[in-house]
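Continuing from the previous page of notes. For each protein in this section, the sequence appears first, followed by its structure tokens. Read the first protein now.
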Amino acid sequence: GLGRVVSYCVFLMIHSPL
């Protein structure tokens, strides 16, 4: 669902190497 996509985006931002 959309919530899963949002959670994934947040995961990427938190674990961003930048």
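Done with the first. The second protein uses the same format. Note its length before scrolling.
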Amino acid sequence: MRIVPRILLCCSLLLLFALASNDDAYACSCISVPIEEQYERSHIVFLGTVIEKDGQGGNIFEIERVWKGSVLGNTLYVYGGSFGMCGIEFEMGQKYLIHTWHAEGMERTGICSGNLLASEAAEDIQKLNEWRASEKQKSLAAATLLIISITAILGLSYWTMIRR
């Protein structure tokens, strides 16, 4: 019978020490992820200015430039979540580099998505521009190869037809 009070005392002391601990807890902390990885994870990557907020985590951006994905028109609704739940708060009239993912029928973003104020994103924007230029060169090379191949096939077909 004497063991029960001792167990209760030990459990109470452990609980007291756990509650008295003054370490801060951060539920929404992000590790630093390189722009290359953020780009690969993202559904849409764009530069845009906040032109409207719905008060419930939604933001409408006027799109200036898109590096990944496609946007119909020149505006995009992006849900940033609620700030207390790892969401992100955007300021009206500010320009941002935004990385989104697509879920539940809409574009979403959060504090760990790699979003930056445009004024702080010069290095990332430069890398995105370089990748975009590289992709265009690859596309141009592929298109050129396709045109040459089609021309060669048509030429060979024509030559074969004439010889008969």
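What the second structure shows: The beta strands are 44-53, 58-68, 75-79, 95-103, 106-108, 116-117. Residues 122-163 form the longest helix (42 residues). We return to this in next week's lecture.
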